[in-house]
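Page 42, continued from yesterday. The earlier attempt failed because a stray header line got pasted into the input along with the sequence. Redoing it now with the clean sequence only.
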Amino acid sequence: MIEADVPAWAAIVVVALAVIGSALSLLGAVGLVRLKTFYERVHAPTLGATLGMALVLLASIVWFTTVERRFMPRELLIGLFLTVTTPVTLILLARAALFRDRTEGAKDTPRKG
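This time it went through. Structure tokens are written below.
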């Protein structure tokens, strides 16, 4: 185990960011379970996961920058990748479901805009 000299302010910031970020991700997961239709369900985890991921990565940036005493950019690359891929996945899933529902003539299908 590596011993790290971390100031108390940094530990408090890291814990606060990690707890809030994980709570937002949990809220998105609860929304996935509680909401009724696919079109409602697809938004909750996407929004919760994106903001939750950003806060957890920010906590990681603060922690490793404080411990290593230099800026650690790898978390920015992870955040960039997840920020780009999450909305694209949401759009692809929603369009595929919309196409399927319109093809099958489902009654709860959103109308064309």
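Notes: The mean pLDDT is 85.
Reminder to self: strip header lines before submitting.
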